[in-house]
Amino acid sequence: MHKKRAFIVTDSFLYNHGHTRPITNKLDELGIQHATFFNVEPDPTLASAKAGAAHMSEFQPDVIIALGGGSAMDAAKIMWVLYEHPEADFMDMAMRFMDIRKRVYTFPHMGDKAYFIAIPTSAGTGSEVTPFAVITDEKTGVKYPLADYELMPDMAIIDADCHMTAPKGLTAFSGIDAVTHALEAYASMMATDYTDGLALKALKVIFEYLPRAYENGQNDVKARDEMASAATMAGMAFANAFLGVCHSMAHKLGAFHHIAHGLANALMIDEVLRFNAEERPVKMGTFPQYDHPHTLRRYAEVAEYLGLGGNTDEEKLENLIKAIDELKAKVGIKPTIRDYVADEEDFLGRLDAMVEQAFDDQCTGANPRYPLMSEIKQMYLNAYYGTRVKV
């Protein structure tokens, strides 16, 4: 590809445990100069992205290689933007639009200075094939999902060898993250036949192979390989169909209470399935191709594809939720937010701010049932206490 200078973005764990060495050894063999930024945090901040971009500006790479989970890939995407377009205003780029194909802000054109390669080390985020990057403003604590097709990596390398040593917790959380990607893409108002096929196949593979990857991931190459493909397929689905309010609420739950993103999605998904399946919503989205509530049927189709049984659509929905809960239990995920956020007073004290930010999140727009803030609040409360108050 005639590249001369490579800039690797990763986190300290992967760097300190030698995961970048195969890449740097190959770059040395090819005579390509390289530098590595390895200070990406689990929840990457704008400050960290700016620090990485400053290193990039000094080094002047013509190829960027992001190695890691969603955090490393997302941070690398932001660094890429700041490196190629230091004049761009972050808050302008973070503006929310229901459909990112129809935004009044023109995102700067990417790839003029550097080619972007993404190599995931976990099976979950799908960031290697999506036009999204989630970054936290460390001054305000707000977690922003940026969305524009200019952020799409030029190349994704899906290699199960990079996943073999992922710990159980990461395997579980990233795997359930991929489940929510597929479910939200399938229910999205932007869903198409193309995204449906990817979402359904990803779900089938994850239900079969995630428990194996969790139990014996250090040795089970087949399970790791299948999960790697499934996570990327789910990423391709939501890259085009978008997500929904489960991710909106998970983004804020993670930002406010430092819960891993995949875990936050796992804690919210049951509530969102029941909320979206309601046939008489208070409000609906405004997309003309989505003229009536039919998400219950969509979830029933998922249950049918997974062979979960049920005589009515309502039974099929409950069987789907039961299957998801059983999958979560198999990979060590507890059922309620309270299991992870024990300080009830703190949770309730910050709940209203969390609700407002979740309503305002980029992902809310494509949800098939447009939520009221009061409905988001009740979903959070149900998920915290494990209650079943109807929303």
Protein model, in words:
The chain has 391 residues and is of the alpha/beta class. It folds into two domains: 5-157, Rossmann fold (3-Layer(aba) Sandwich); 168-385, Dehydroquinate synthase-like - alpha domain (Dehydroquinate synthase-like, alpha domain, Up-down Bundle). The protein has 15 helices and seven strands. The strands form two sheets. It has a five-stranded parallel beta sheet with strand order 2-1-3-4-7, with helices on both faces. Strands 5-6 form a two-stranded antiparallel ribbon. Helix 3 crosses helix 4 (70-84), helix 6 packs antiparallel against helix 7 and helix 6 packs parallel to helix 10. The longest helix has 24 residues, at 193-216. The mean pLDDT is 92.
